[in-house]
Amino acid sequence: MIRRVSDPETPPDERPRDAAPVTRPMGHRLLLLGGTIVAVVVAYFIASATIPRWWAQRIGDQVDGSGTAGVGLGLFYGFVFTFLPLLVVSFALRRRRGWRARAWLFGLAVLLALPNLFTLGIVLGTGSAAHAGERILDVDAPYFRGATLVGAIVGALAAVGVRYLIDSRRRHKRQEDELRDELKTRDEAERARADEAAQ
Fold first, then answer.
1. Distance between CA 53 and CA 27 in Å, rounded?
2. Domain residue ranges of the chain, discontinuous segments joined by +
3. Measured distance CA(165)–CA(171) in Å, rounded
4. Contact 144, 74 (CB under 8 A)
5. Rounded to an integer, what distance in angstroms lies between the CA atom of residue 41 and that of residue 192?
6. pLDDT at position 23
7. How far apart are CA 129 and CA 46, in angstroms?
8. pLDDT digits (tens, 9 = 90+) for 68-115
9. Alpha-carbon distances, residue 79 vs 56, 66, 86, 129, 184 (angstroms)
Protein backbone atom coordinates (compact mmCIF):
# COMPACT_ATOMS: atom_id res chain seq x y z
CA MET A 1 0.00 0.00 0.00
CA ILE A 2 1.47 3.38 -1.05
CA ARG A 3 1.53 6.10 1.62
CA ARG A 4 1.10 9.71 0.51
CA VAL A 5 3.61 12.13 1.88
CA SER A 6 2.00 15.47 2.75
CA ASP A 7 3.52 18.50 1.13
CA PRO A 8 5.00 20.80 3.82
CA GLU A 9 4.30 23.81 1.61
CA THR A 10 0.56 23.08 1.37
CA PRO A 11 -1.44 26.13 2.49
CA PRO A 12 -3.15 25.80 5.90
CA ASP A 13 -6.69 25.82 4.46
CA GLU A 14 -5.83 22.99 2.06
CA ARG A 15 -4.42 20.68 4.75
CA PRO A 16 -6.56 17.83 6.12
CA ARG A 17 -9.07 18.86 8.75
CA ASP A 18 -7.80 16.31 11.23
CA ALA A 19 -4.30 17.78 11.20
CA ALA A 20 -2.99 18.79 14.64
CA PRO A 21 -3.17 22.54 15.35
CA VAL A 22 0.06 24.48 15.33
CA THR A 23 1.18 25.33 18.88
CA ARG A 24 3.90 27.62 20.07
CA PRO A 25 7.00 26.02 21.59
CA MET A 26 7.29 26.07 25.37
CA GLY A 27 10.28 28.39 25.14
CA HIS A 28 8.21 31.09 23.41
CA ARG A 29 5.50 30.81 26.05
CA LEU A 30 7.98 31.10 28.90
CA LEU A 31 9.65 34.07 27.21
CA LEU A 32 6.28 35.80 26.76
CA LEU A 33 5.32 35.12 30.39
CA GLY A 34 8.68 36.37 31.66
CA GLY A 35 8.42 39.53 29.56
CA THR A 36 4.91 40.20 30.86
CA ILE A 37 6.02 39.77 34.49
CA VAL A 38 9.00 42.08 34.01
CA ALA A 39 6.78 44.71 32.33
CA VAL A 40 4.25 44.53 35.19
CA VAL A 41 6.98 44.88 37.84
CA VAL A 42 8.60 47.83 36.06
CA ALA A 43 5.20 49.51 35.60
CA TYR A 44 4.46 48.98 39.30
CA PHE A 45 7.67 50.65 40.45
CA ILE A 46 7.21 53.55 38.03
CA ALA A 47 3.61 54.01 39.17
CA SER A 48 4.48 53.83 42.87
CA ALA A 49 7.16 56.50 42.38
CA THR A 50 5.01 58.95 40.42
CA ILE A 51 1.26 58.39 40.80
CA PRO A 52 0.80 59.15 44.56
CA ARG A 53 2.31 62.64 44.28
CA TRP A 54 0.52 63.34 40.99
CA TRP A 55 -2.86 62.17 42.33
CA ALA A 56 -2.49 64.16 45.54
CA GLN A 57 -1.75 67.28 43.51
CA ARG A 58 -4.86 66.71 41.35
CA ILE A 59 -7.05 66.30 44.44
CA GLY A 60 -5.41 69.28 46.11
CA ASP A 61 -6.17 71.44 43.10
CA GLN A 62 -9.84 70.39 43.22
CA VAL A 63 -10.30 70.82 46.98
CA ASP A 64 -8.06 73.89 47.30
CA GLY A 65 -7.75 73.66 51.08
CA SER A 66 -11.50 73.69 51.81
CA GLY A 67 -12.65 71.21 54.43
CA THR A 68 -16.19 71.16 53.04
CA ALA A 69 -14.93 70.50 49.53
CA GLY A 70 -12.65 67.78 50.91
CA VAL A 71 -15.58 65.99 52.55
CA GLY A 72 -17.86 66.35 49.52
CA LEU A 73 -15.26 65.26 47.00
CA GLY A 74 -14.13 62.39 49.20
CA LEU A 75 -17.68 61.09 49.59
CA PHE A 76 -18.21 61.39 45.83
CA TYR A 77 -15.02 59.58 44.85
CA GLY A 78 -15.41 56.94 47.53
CA PHE A 79 -19.02 56.15 46.68
CA VAL A 80 -19.00 56.30 42.87
CA PHE A 81 -15.69 54.53 42.30
CA THR A 82 -16.59 51.73 44.72
CA PHE A 83 -20.23 51.28 43.74
CA LEU A 84 -19.63 51.07 39.97
CA PRO A 85 -16.67 48.62 40.05
CA LEU A 86 -18.45 46.26 42.45
CA LEU A 87 -21.57 46.35 40.29
CA VAL A 88 -19.51 45.52 37.20
CA VAL A 89 -17.78 42.67 39.07
CA SER A 90 -21.15 41.28 40.16
CA PHE A 91 -22.25 41.16 36.50
CA ALA A 92 -18.93 39.57 35.54
CA LEU A 93 -19.46 36.73 38.01
CA ARG A 94 -22.73 35.60 36.48
CA ARG A 95 -22.67 31.97 35.34
CA ARG A 96 -23.54 32.62 31.72
CA ARG A 97 -20.51 34.84 31.08
CA GLY A 98 -17.63 33.48 29.04
CA TRP A 99 -14.06 33.93 30.22
CA ARG A 100 -13.37 36.66 27.66
CA ALA A 101 -16.40 38.68 28.70
CA ARG A 102 -15.39 38.27 32.34
CA ALA A 103 -11.85 39.44 31.58
CA TRP A 104 -13.16 42.57 29.85
CA LEU A 105 -15.57 43.29 32.70
CA PHE A 106 -12.87 42.80 35.33
CA GLY A 107 -10.62 45.17 33.38
CA LEU A 108 -13.42 47.74 33.27
CA ALA A 109 -13.94 47.34 37.02
CA VAL A 110 -10.25 47.99 37.69
CA LEU A 111 -10.35 51.12 35.52
CA LEU A 112 -13.40 52.39 37.37
CA ALA A 113 -11.73 51.73 40.73
CA LEU A 114 -8.48 53.55 39.85
CA PRO A 115 -9.29 56.81 41.73
CA ASN A 116 -9.85 54.93 44.97
CA LEU A 117 -6.84 52.70 44.30
CA PHE A 118 -4.70 55.83 43.86
CA THR A 119 -5.93 57.18 47.18
CA LEU A 120 -5.35 53.79 48.82
CA GLY A 121 -1.81 53.79 47.45
CA ILE A 122 -1.18 57.10 49.21
CA VAL A 123 -2.65 55.85 52.49
CA LEU A 124 -0.90 52.46 52.53
CA GLY A 125 2.22 53.37 50.58
CA THR A 126 5.61 53.44 52.28
CA GLY A 127 7.67 55.19 49.60
CA SER A 128 8.69 58.82 49.42
CA ALA A 129 6.02 59.56 46.79
CA ALA A 130 3.28 58.21 49.09
CA HIS A 131 4.56 60.29 52.03
CA ALA A 132 4.70 63.37 49.79
CA GLY A 133 1.12 62.63 48.71
CA GLU A 134 0.01 62.43 52.35
CA ARG A 135 1.56 65.81 53.11
CA ILE A 136 -0.13 67.37 50.07
CA LEU A 137 -3.51 65.96 51.08
CA ASP A 138 -3.07 67.12 54.67
CA VAL A 139 -2.54 70.71 53.55
CA ASP A 140 -4.55 71.05 50.32
CA ALA A 141 -7.33 68.44 50.78
CA PRO A 142 -8.30 68.13 54.45
CA TYR A 143 -10.77 65.37 55.38
CA PHE A 144 -10.59 63.92 51.87
CA ARG A 145 -9.14 60.54 52.88
CA GLY A 146 -11.58 59.94 55.73
CA ALA A 147 -14.55 60.98 53.59
CA THR A 148 -13.34 58.69 50.80
CA LEU A 149 -13.33 55.76 53.25
CA VAL A 150 -16.89 56.56 54.36
CA GLY A 151 -18.04 56.90 50.75
CA ALA A 152 -16.39 53.61 49.82
CA ILE A 153 -18.18 51.78 52.65
CA VAL A 154 -21.54 53.29 51.63
CA GLY A 155 -20.83 52.47 47.97
CA ALA A 156 -20.03 48.84 48.81
CA LEU A 157 -23.25 48.50 50.83
CA ALA A 158 -25.23 50.11 48.00
CA ALA A 159 -23.72 47.72 45.44
CA VAL A 160 -24.62 44.73 47.59
CA GLY A 161 -28.15 46.09 48.02
CA VAL A 162 -28.66 46.70 44.31
CA ARG A 163 -27.34 43.25 43.46
CA TYR A 164 -29.69 41.72 46.04
CA LEU A 165 -32.67 43.62 44.60
CA ILE A 166 -31.81 42.52 41.05
CA ASP A 167 -31.41 38.88 42.11
CA SER A 168 -34.58 38.88 44.21
CA ARG A 169 -36.57 40.47 41.38
CA ARG A 170 -35.26 37.83 38.97
CA ARG A 171 -36.06 35.07 41.48
CA HIS A 172 -39.61 36.35 42.05
CA LYS A 173 -40.18 36.60 38.31
CA ARG A 174 -39.00 33.01 37.86
CA GLN A 175 -41.32 31.84 40.64
CA GLU A 176 -44.19 33.79 39.11
CA ASP A 177 -43.57 32.17 35.71
CA GLU A 178 -43.49 28.73 37.34
CA LEU A 179 -46.77 29.39 39.16
CA ARG A 180 -48.37 30.69 35.97
CA ASP A 181 -47.27 27.57 34.08
CA GLU A 182 -48.59 25.38 36.90
CA LEU A 183 -51.98 27.13 36.87
CA LYS A 184 -52.16 26.83 33.10
CA THR A 185 -51.43 23.12 33.27
CA ARG A 186 -54.03 22.66 36.01
CA ASP A 187 -56.67 24.58 34.02
CA GLU A 188 -56.00 22.50 30.95
CA ALA A 189 -56.30 19.29 32.99
CA GLU A 190 -59.61 20.43 34.53
CA ARG A 191 -60.93 21.44 31.12
CA ALA A 192 -59.97 18.04 29.70
CA ARG A 193 -61.79 16.27 32.58
CA ALA A 194 -64.83 18.45 32.06
CA ASP A 195 -64.87 17.58 28.34
CA GLU A 196 -64.61 13.87 29.17
CA ALA A 197 -67.45 14.13 31.68
CA ALA A 198 -69.63 15.98 29.14
CA GLN A 199 -69.13 13.19 26.61
1. 40
2. 46-173
3. 10
4. yes
5. 73
6. 57
7. 11
8. 999 999 999 999 999 999 999 988 887 777 888 888 999 999 999 999
9. 18, 20, 11, 25, 46
